[in-house]
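All the exercises in this workshop are built on plain-text protein records. A record pairs a protein's sequence with a compact description of its fold. Backbone structure tokens are a discrete shorthand for how the chain folds in space. Once this layout is familiar, the rest of the handout is easier to follow. As an example, a complete record with its sequence and its structure tokens follows.
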Amino acid sequence: MRNVIYLGSTAGPPRTGGERYDLEILSFLQNNGWSTNCLAPPSSPGVPFLLRHTSENFWFLREVLRLADARTVVLEDLHLHSRTLLLNLYLRAGRRTQLLGILHHLPYHDLGSRAYRAIDRALVRLSLSLMHHVIAISQSTKQSLSSLGMPSDRIHVVLPNATELPHPVRSPLNDGTLHALFVGTCCPRKGVDHLVRAMGQLRDCPLTVHVVGDLAIDADYAQGVVRLAHEMGLGDRVVFHGRISQESLHEQYARADMFVLPSLWEGYGIVLIEATAFGLPIVATSVGAVPEIVQDGYNGLLVPPSDAGALAAALRRVCTDVSLRQSLATGCLERRRSLRTWDSVGKEFADLLDRIAS
């Protein structure tokens, strides 16, 4: 039996699509003969960044060495790269432990400062050089890895093109207003501020946007976006639901008339798969892996990132053109036929682990 130690950022329920992917993979491994241990550092609110990351480096080192043996595979979410550097350097110095990374998107896409991005890019390069293999969740992410100099024979792709709802039932509100749904963490990379500004250009359009996702991960940004919506007089047309249960999320999908994702970057976009499963016309930005899921004019409309005007124009088209809306919905339903189950994704991942960790 192989021993897998997973290193993640949280031990709680998944807050993001990336955490959902990792959880589904681990659940499959646990249910199919793999011994798994999941490690996430204890919460330390208020601790300065440098001190917190230093202590977490020593925490991961101690915990992994306590659990690891010669047949251990360390499976690491690479968003932890600055917190596992000491561990990775130690493991590559002489132990036989296999180091495998999971990369959803390059971490520095979440950083605003150019200086921080440059420093983080250097740390990412170092972390990648220590990995035996990296598993990317999209072709776009694979290309990002290649651009950083990682050899192609050490990069593998396992797509999360899965849903547990093969035949969801739509139940739109039909209340005279169209409802657009956004699902994702309320943070700068998701471009929610651009969505609010786009709604400011659609005052004559019977459209309400429902923003579903964690408002606490980047509380300053989220509070600023909520404040912006109220300052623009959009309090009743941009509704912030915060983080909700999976059952409530499915109800939001079922009631929506369209889906919108104005991200500045996406490593994949599991929410786009969920929207596809529900047959929702999609308006999204043409960044990262989004064009791998959304074909412009077929199952959605693609617009440039950070462009509230283009986003507003696309939303207006979907709102006002019934035939377009129906055509895009049909495209999504056709795409839904190619979606697979999470067990299928888990099996592909487990088979890959067997091959590369042998």
Remarks:
- The radius of gyration is 21 Å.
- The chain has two domains: 3-162+340-356, 178-336.
